[in-house]
Design brief:
mainly beta; 4-stranded antiparallel beta sheet; Immunoglobulin-like; single chain; 202 residues; 13% helix
Length: 202
Amino acid sequence: MKLETKDLVTFVVSGAAFVVSLASFYFAQIHKPSGAMLILLERNFSAAVWKRGLGHEDYLPPTSTMVSPQIRHLRYSLSNTGKQTLYVKSVDLLRGADTRGNLRSHVPFTVIPSGDVDAFLIAPGDIKIIELDQPMDYEFPDDYDFVENCYELVSLEVVSADGHRYQMCHNITGLQSWGMDIHHPIWDGTTLGNPIRGTGFV
């Protein structure tokens, strides 16, 4: 039986439609990737609070006592851009020698106090606001190597619904300056990236 041109066209179109329908089913029902975007929205500083008192004797100068140190406030948005619910296990402020963070590197990191952020779930298409408050009076050990440990990171440890572990690190090393231009790369978003292997290191 000889096929005419119109029959061949019909078969090709039908086959293409079948492939497209299979691909659509796969991406809609089976393939559910994880994705997230972390964006720094704003940062500001609150001034230190001092309490002034009189000297104990008339000849002593007035005294000043710090009631509250200067605090740096960081405000982030976390968007779940994937198709799986994500569990944000921890949010930390780290200082160390590697921009990849403590889960991807063998070097030690210092966790800088920045207020407690409770663990939370974020559904696909949802967005959460994360706020960190860092007191600027944190004292490092006298022998701390600031040259080697030159990176300051905001780190999120994330677990996806399919059991993969991720670490999102935003490098805020230069954020101490007040004059960060809106076009500076520090305002760019940080993506979820690739999962961390079960051994703990990539």
